[in-house]
């Protein structure tokens, strides 16, 4: 009996089984990614200039004029072109929020609108601002990822802020034009909707039939991860 064909058949069978296993693993991985995206990645749009220039750098009014760093009148928002992105709403993502991450949050249980802010202080920390905006955490200076012009000249707390185990200190990057923890104090973890993953397009703001702002005409571009 010729052993060569038998060995070849065994090799072929082994290779075939390996291919099936690899294909199955890839298929499961793809299905897992799709499930995760459908379950935990949610869209959001940037509804103001408080995170300028990180977000809405090229936001325009209905006439195509760039809004710049000065926040517009919210009652005149219809027709604006704003940044459109995705956030990770999974509990694990929120639990792993780090300093300088950008999050989507509300300020209270009754709050109906999303705010996009940068995390400066984490649970249990003591936050203090000196020298017109310099950030100190637990007594140590922490450099911020912002240009000086956006840090200086804002209204900061004059006293130290001690964060509880479920509290975060958040600020907009456009400090002089941001309503945030400097004004209202820390936010509760339960109010954080998600962690911003990427800006993946622009959209047009409109007023729906219930008089709530929403977006349409989404124009996707290559994702810009934050």
Question: Largest beta sheet, briefly?
Answer: 8 strands, antiparallel
Mean pLDDT: 87
CATH homolog superfamily: Umud Fragment, subunit A
| CA-based gyration radius | 24 Å
Shape designation: globular
CA-CA gap between termini: 66 Å
Count of individual domains: 1
Beta strand %: 25-35%
Instruction: Give the low-confidence spans.
Output: 23-38
CATH class: Mainly Beta
The CATH topology label is Umud Fragment, subunit A
Count, helices:
4
CATH second-level architecture: Ribbon
Number of strands: 12
Give the helix proportion (percent range). Answer: 10-25%
Strand pairing plus helix content: what structural class?
alpha+beta
SSE order, as H and E? HEEHEEEEEHEEHEEE
Topology of this structure?
Blueprint (H helix, E strand, L loop, with lengths): L2 H38 E5 L35 E8 L2 H5 L6 E4 L9 E7 L4 E5 L3 E4 L2 E3 L5 H4 L9 E2 L4 E5 L9 H4 L2 E2 L3 E16 L5 E13 L1
Antiparallel strand pairs: 1-2, 2-11, 3-4, 3-11, 4-9, 5-6, 5-8, 6-7, 9-10, 11-12
């Amino acid at each position: 009996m010729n052993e060569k064909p038998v060995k070849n058949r065994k090799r072929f069978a082994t290779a075939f089984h390996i291919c099936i296993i690899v294909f199955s693993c890839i298929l499961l991985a793809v299905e897992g990614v799709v499930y995760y995206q459908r379950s935990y990645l949610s869209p959001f749009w940037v509804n103001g200039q408080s995170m300028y220039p990180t977000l809405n750098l090229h936001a325009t009014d209905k006439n195509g004029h760039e809004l710049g760093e000065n926040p517009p009148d919210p009652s005149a928002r219809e027709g604006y072109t704003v940044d459109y992105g995705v956030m990770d709403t999974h509990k694990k993502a929120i639990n792993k929020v780090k300093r300088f991450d950008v999050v989507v949050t509300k300020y209270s249980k009754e709050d109906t609108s999303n705010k996009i802010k940068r995390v400066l202080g984490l649970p249990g920390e003591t936050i203090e601002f000196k020298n017109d905006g310099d950030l100190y955490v637990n007594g140590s200076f922490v450099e911020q990822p912002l240009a000086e012009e956006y840090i200086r000249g804002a209204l900061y707390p004059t006293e130290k802020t001690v964060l509880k185990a479920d509290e975060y200190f958040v600020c907009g990057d456009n400090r002089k034009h941001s309503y945030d923890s400097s004004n209202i104090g820390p936010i509760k973890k339960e109010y954080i909707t998600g962690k911003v993953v990427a800006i993946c397009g622009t959209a047009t703001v409109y007023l729906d039939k219930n008089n709530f702002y929403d977006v349409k005409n989404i124009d996707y571009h290559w994702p810009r991860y934050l």
